[in-house]
């Protein structure tokens, strides 16, 4: 469950991104991750989500931050593939629905 504080941090960070950062970051840092600490207005760029979050936590260990992927609608994308052949084979023997969908984070 998302707390109201987390929603406020996310909303403030997205507002900073939209109003002050989007134009410059999307031109030169597309596909990188940006972690925004909305109280200070500072942001941290990195090639990975972990690095961006890590950088903001080093400087502001007691504050919440929000991360975005520059130039994308969402920070992470999930891709799923359904293999119908696998489904038919599983139904004929011991059926395990969990084995029908393969997901990966890209």
Descriptors for this entry?
3 helices, globular, alpha+beta, disordered C terminus, 106 residues, 2 domains, 42% helix
Order of strands in the sheet with most strands:
2-1-3
Query: Roughly how many Å apart are the termini?
Result: 25 Å
C-alpha-based Rg, rounded: 19 Å
Q: What's the number of domains? A: 2
Residue ranges: pLDDT <50 for 5 or more in a row?
A: 87-92, 99-106
Beta-strand fraction estimate: 15-25%
- Could you say which overall geometry the principal axes of the C-alpha atoms support? globular
Question: How would you explain this protein's 3D organization?
Answer:
- With 106 residues, this protein is an alpha+beta fold.
- It has two domains: 72 residues, no CATH class; 31 residues, no CATH class.
- Helices cover 42% and strands 23% of the residues.
- The strands form two sheets. A three-stranded antiparallel β-sheet has the order 2-1-3. The chain has a two-stranded antiparallel sheet with strand order 4-5.
- A hairpin with a 4-residue loop joins β1 and β2.
- The longest helix is centred in the first third of the chain and has 25 residues.
- It is globular.
- The relative contact order is 0.14.
- The C terminus is likely disordered.
